[in-house]
């Protein structure tokens, strides 16, 4: 018990030899993780296709070495010997955060044989190359054996852990600590109570919003100029960032001062590269905002995929699809593509990029129907993991859910079951996208209180205070706090879909005159 007015004495930990030894080991594990990340980035951006087999072996070796180093008996001994020190430290201290996060990760990793970890890495690398070829050919049969192999490996992974009512929970936990499929379903069901009738009401007025101008001729070099202008406003720094093109966009950080983001360009459809780059820049800002002191400590990374996605979805949608943003940037757009936008105003463009309509491609979906794309994948992943659905039957199951949820027909595998890269790496990631939307709504509600003139600032392209708010409240902490702890610290509640639902309802009511 702490007496009122008592002075809190924080023990000196910098000279503790056990903590120093643990930090040294964690630094080496992080270094190997960075090497693995660099290999993955190179594979997806510039590796010659013929190098795929060699790259799979390299990544598997690095992953195995990192796993063996992290799960070494000595790490467990150090964690046990450091319990008294951890208990004496303030919960918010970096060292206490490092110890509790490392202990949880160590306990999970110890359950998984290094050989299985290496197999999973090798299979994922091979599956990625198979997915690229299958998507290009729009032929699920080329990807199927790799997906079946990945599923078999993940069933072995699941078997490493105590039995769960839903085996999918073990996979989801890797991306969102402590989250279960039942909890995610409850959040999505609550969200759907607002979204489904809202989508129905908007679709009935679909003709009132025109987005035909988003399809046309948009030369890549002009798109690249516009993307760079927008990203620099967001916070892209050429001295420590780079932007590349890939089949499926992603972002990663190899450590302080090295953020890699990607996008892809379609010369007949403008939003793909523009909003894709915004999305990945949101991820990059999170990574760039982590306190450099946490580097190579085991907590110098994002705390969860839901928090990560909240950042990307916020910058892409709540900032990048806002009316103030395009009041500022529409003149630049019109100068880039005068034939298309020379006679248009910013309001028409704003309405067009926010049009709600069922569509085939998730990453190009509007804010409202996007969540139905996630629910579709979430349900399919659970069915496959539980053995209720065979991998061979995924294309037809996918197509049927697209009819049921979005009312559209899937023309081919490339526009359906093969459109996302994620299943090359396993299951469990997709729910975090919609959870990220929910969290973004909660954070934005708080941001509006703390930065009451946020709209005016966006309209002037003055985004520094927003970046600083996110860095202070979210980014700098790395993995020190769980998603639930961060929400409690910042907004005072757990996951709550209502702020996001209210944001969407207000936005679409304004656009469609509901």
Question: What this model shows, in words?
Answer:
This protein has a three-stranded mixed sheet with strand order 1-3-2. Helices cover 61% and strands 3% of the residues. Strand 2 (251-255) and strand 3 (258-263) form a beta hairpin. By secondary structure, it is mainly α. Helix 6 (114-137) packs antiparallel against helix 7.
Compact summary:
By secondary structure, the protein is mainly α. The chain is 61% helix and 3% strand.
Trace the largest sheet across and list its strands: 1-3-2
Main sheet properties: 3 strands, mixed
Tell me the strand percentage band. Answer: under 5%
Low-confidence stretches: 1-11
What is the number of beta strands? 3
Order of helices and strands: HHHHHHHHHHEEEHHHHHHHHHHHH
What is the rounded Rg? 23 Å
Quick check: average pLDDT? Answer: 95
Helix content: 55-70%
Count of alpha/pi helices: 22
Distance between the termini: 56 Å
Structure class: mainly alpha
Query: What shape does the CA trace take?
Result: globular
Topology diagram in text:
Elements: H1 17-45, H2 52-70, H3 73-81, H4 83-88, H5 94-109, H6 114-137, H7 140-158, H8 168-173, H9 181-203, H10 220-234, E1 241-245, E2 251-255, E3 258-263, H11 271-288, H12 305-319, H13 323-336, H14 338-341, H15 346-353, H16 370-385, H17 394-406, H18 431-450, H19 454-459, H20 464-473, H21 483-490, H22 498-512
Parallel strand pairs: 1-3
Antiparallel strand pairs: 2-3
């Amino acid at each position: 018990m702490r007496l009122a007015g008592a002075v809190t004495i924080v023990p000196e930990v910098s000279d503790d030899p056990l903590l120093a030894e643990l930090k040294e080991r964690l630094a080496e594990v992080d270094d190997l993780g960075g090497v693995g990340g660099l290999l993955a980035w190179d594979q997806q951006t510039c590796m010659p296709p013929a190098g795929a087999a060699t790259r799979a072996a390299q990544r598997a070796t690095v992953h195995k070495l990192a796993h063996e180093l992290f799960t070494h008996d000595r790490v467990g001994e150090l964690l046990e010997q450091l319990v008294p020190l951890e208990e004496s430290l303030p919960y918010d201290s970096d060292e206490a955060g490092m110890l509790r996060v490392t202990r949880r990760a160590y306990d999970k990793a110890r359950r998984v044989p290094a050989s299985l970890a290496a197999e999973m890495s090798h299979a994922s690398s091979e599956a990625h190359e198979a997915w690229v070829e299958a998507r290009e050919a729009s032929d699920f049969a080329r990807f199927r054996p790799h997906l079946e192999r990945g599923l078999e490996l993940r069933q072995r992974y699941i078997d490493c852990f105590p039995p769960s009512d839903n085996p999918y929970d073990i996979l989801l936990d890797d991306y969102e600590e402590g989250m279960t499929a039942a909890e995610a379903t409850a959040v999505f069901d609550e969200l759907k109570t607002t979204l489904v009738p809202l989508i129905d009401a908007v679709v009935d007025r679909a003709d009132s919003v025109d987005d035909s101008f988003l399809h046309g001729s948009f030369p890549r070099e002009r798109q690249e100029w516009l993307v760079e202008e927008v990203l620099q406003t967001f916070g892209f720094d050429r001295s420590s960032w780079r932007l590349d093109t890939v089949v499926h966009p992603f972002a990663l950080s190899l450590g302080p001062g090295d953020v890699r983001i990607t996008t892809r360009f379609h010369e007949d459809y403008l939003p793909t590269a523009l909003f894709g780059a915004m999305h990945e820049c949101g991820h990059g800002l999170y990574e760039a905002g982590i306190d450099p002191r946490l580097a190579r400590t085991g907590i110098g990374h994002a705390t969860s995929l839901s928090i990560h996605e909240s950042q990307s979805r916020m910058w892409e949608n709540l900032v990048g699809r806002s009316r103030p943003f395009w009041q500022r940037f529409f003149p630049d757009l019109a100068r880039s593509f005068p034939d298309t936008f020379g006679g248009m105003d910013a309001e028409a463009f704003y309405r067009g990029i926010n049009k709600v309509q069922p569509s085939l491609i998730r990453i190009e979906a509007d804010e409202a129907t996007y969540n139905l794309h996630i629910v579709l994948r979430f349900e399919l992943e659970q069915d496959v993991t539980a053995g209720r659905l065979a991998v061979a039957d995924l294309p037809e199951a996918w197509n049927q859910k697209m009819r049921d949820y979005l009312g559209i027909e899937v023309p081919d595998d490339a526009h359906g079951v093969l459109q996302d890269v994620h299943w090359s790496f396993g299951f469990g990631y997709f729910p975090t996208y919609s959870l990220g939307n929910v969290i973004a709504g909660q954070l934005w509600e708080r941001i509006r209180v703390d930065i009451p003139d946020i709209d005016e600032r966006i309209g002037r392209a003055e985004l520094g205070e927003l970046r600083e708010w996110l860095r202070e409240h979210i980014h700098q902490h790395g993995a020190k706090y769980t998603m639930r702890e961060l929400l409690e610290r910042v907004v005072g509640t757990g996951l709550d879909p209502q702020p996001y639902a209210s944001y969407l309802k207000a936005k679409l009511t304004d656009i469609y005159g509901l």
